[in-house]
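User: Can you recover a sequence for this backbone? Please restate the input before giving your answer.

Assistant: Of course. Working from this structure:
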């Protein structure tokens, strides 16, 4: 209801004929709903993400808060295929032996030492507690 709502962005009353509602209880002036990182206006045409009371565009939210590749530290897109080793996630092209650079494929035996992946040829038999 215009005139009764307080803008989550500026704190002022929303008396405009239109407002934007994000989440069930946050309302914004149309001009106040912008990405906290890049300033892109966030309206009904783009996806909006909230974190700690701030609004973000999809690109910045993914970059700042999304899971990142354990090797290259880049964010993943929704279409990326990934490889996992314990709590680490890798792009397929980043899932490589740290010693020889060989790409590790599903079914390959490897060892994870801290953040380094090692193929079977470079680590020998898996030590106790290693991922194989």
């Amino acid at each position: 209801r215009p005139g009764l709502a307080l803008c989550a962005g500026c704190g002022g009353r929303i008396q405009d004929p239109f407002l934007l509602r994000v989440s069930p209880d946050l309302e914004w002036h149309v001009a106040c709903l912008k990405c906290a990182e890049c300033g892109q206006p966030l309206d009904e045409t783009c996806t909006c993400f909230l974190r700690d009371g701030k609004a973000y565009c999809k690109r910045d939210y993914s970059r700042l808060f999304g899971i990142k590749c354990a090797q290259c530290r880049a964010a993943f897109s929704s279409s990326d295929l990934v490889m996992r080793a314990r709590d680490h996630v890798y792009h397929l092209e980043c899932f490589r032996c740290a010693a020889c650079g060989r790409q590790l494929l599903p079914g390959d035996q490897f060892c994870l030492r801290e953040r380094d992946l090692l193929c079977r040829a470079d680590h020998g038999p898996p030590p106790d507690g290693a991922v194989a």
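That completes the design. The domain at 68-131 is CATH 2.10.110.10 (Cysteine Rich Protein).
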